[in-house]
Amino acid sequence: MDYTLLGHSGLTVSKYALGTIPFAGTDGFENAGGMSQETANYMIDYALEQGINQFDTANLYSKGGSEIVLGKTIRDKREEMVISSKTGVQLSDNPNDGGASRINIERSIDETLQRLGTDYIDLYYVHLWDGQVPVEETIQVMNDLIKKGKIRHWGVSNYSGWALAKTHTLAVANHMAPPIAQQIYYTPESREAEYELLPAGKELGVGNSIWSPLGEGLLTGKINRTRSGESGTRQGDGWPEPYIKNKELFYQLIDVMQEVAANHNVSVAQVTLAWLRDRPNVDSVVLASRTKMQLQDNIASYHLQLTNSEIETINDLTRPEPIYPLWHRAMNSYDKASEAEKVYLNGYNKLMNNKDNLLQVKNEKKH
User: Fold this and answer.
1) Cα(181)–Cα(350) distance, rounded to whole angstroms?
2) What are φ and ψ of residue 287, in 5° steps?
C-alpha cells in the first residue's frame, strides 16, 4: 500500500481508505449495510494488516450508528488509525441541526467524539455546500476546533469548484487553516469531477478523496443489461443515487468492464478500482465493503495492473464532453495550462479530433 501526504498538510494517508456506511443499517441505511460487531472488527483489523490507515464515517450514516460501531472497533489501535467524519446533512426538523453553521458544527463534533469514544478526529468534513451560511463562519469554527484539539484538520465534500476555491482562498487570506481535502464522487461512469474539481484540488493543495468509487453498487458487476441488482442491496431495492446521465453508455461501459475483468480473471469491482486508483490527481479512494469477501476482493484490486489498451478503451468510451470554456482552452491555450489540467485538456483535444475525422468521412461519403 502506498502512502501520501493529504493535500498541503503533514497528514500521511494510505491510497485506499475504509468507509463505514455498511457498519450499521438503520435510519434509511438498511439496504446499505448492517453487520455484526465481530465483522466490523475484522474489517478494521484486515484493513490495517493490508496497510490501510484511514477510516471514514459521518454522522449521517444510520444517524450516528456507523460512528458508534466504528468507535467500538478502535480498541487499542487509535494511534494506527486516521479517522475522518462529516457533518452538514439535515438530520432532524430542527433548523440548526444541519448545514455549515457554527451551532451545528460545534454540536455535531461533540456528538461524534462521544459516539466514537475518542478525544479527537484527524479530519472533519463539511458534508455538503451550505450557501446560506457565511463561508467565514465555517472557516472560523473549524479553526476553533483545531485550536481546541477536537480535530486536527478539516475538509469539504460535494462542493463545486468555485465553492472550494472561495473557501480555500478566504481561509488563506485571513491567515487561517484551509481545508486540506475534499471528498468527491468520481467513477468511470461519472467523470464530471475532471472538469474542475480534480485539477482545482491539485492546484490548491487540497487532497482529492473519492467516495463510493463503485458507484453506490452500480459498478460491481451485479448490474448489467439483463440484471437490475440483488434484493437487499442499495441498487436492488430502489436506492435513489447515483444519477445516470446516459443508461445506454452505462451498459456499454459494463460490457467493457466485464470483458476486461474476464481477461484478468478478476471481478468488475477490481477493474473499476484499478482504473480509478491510477487516475491523475486522485489521492485517496474510499472503499465500502459489506462482507469480508468483498473487502478482500476490493483491496486485492490494489495489485491489479490494467494494460494501457484497456485503460484507453475505458477512457475513450466515457470521456466527458469538453464543455465551454474547456473546448476553447484545449484548442487555443493548451500550452498555458498547468500539469493538473493538461491531462484532461489533452483528452478533450483527442475527442474533438476524432469527431472532426468522423465528420470529414461523412462529408466525403456524401460526395
Assistant:
1) 30
2) -85, 150
Whether the Cβ atoms of residue 105 and residue 137 lie closer than 8 Å to each other:
no
Cα–Cα–Cα angle for 255, 326, 181, nearest 5°? 75
CA distance 252 to 20: 30
Q: Report pLDDT digits (tens) over 195-251.
A: 999 999 999 999 999 999 999 989 998 888 887 766 556 665 666 778 999 999 999
CB 342 within 8 A of CB 200: no
14 strand-pairing partners:
3
**pLDDT of the residue at 230:** 60
Taking the model in full, what pTM does it have? 0.93
